[in-house]
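Example record for the data management plan.
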Amino acid sequence: MEDVCAPEDSYVCVRIDWKTIEALQLEVGTDEIINALVKSKLKIARQDVRINGNKIRIYVRELAAKDRGAKDDGDVYLRVQALKRAIPNVIVNGYPNAVRAVVKKNEKTGENELLVEGYGLRQCMNTDGVIGTQTKSNHIMEMKEVLGIEAARYIFPFSSPSVSCC
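Corresponding structural encoding:
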């Protein structure tokens, strides 16, 4: 990633390593990357994003005085630097609350299991290839929100609201 601040153009250039994306078997293309940038909270317009080979340029324009609001953030250099810091946090594909995912082969059945660390039970259950009725979670409050209180009590049958811990 590099930033360019010149009198005629100011932009952040992101180089995409397609070999790494293919090696990891990620189903990500330039359209998905651009859509993620536009839909993010960074306020990037689609016309400000341009593709040049394996590089994506995100142009920064100077804000008009009426769009600046109360604080003066019209300095293009500061906006380019802020954009450069924020772009690595944009989630292109996947679940924002999942920290890590591991595919494991079950020794008893020989089938693959997907183990996800983090939150997002509803999103995991709705993923293509995941059998929602066989999905489990150890987060009782998330189970209650997604499947209801009876499902949460079924998973943890010994927990009772009347039991108190010292």
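Summary line stored alongside the record: The helical segments are 18-23, 30-39, 65-68, 76-86, 121-125, 140-147, 149-155.
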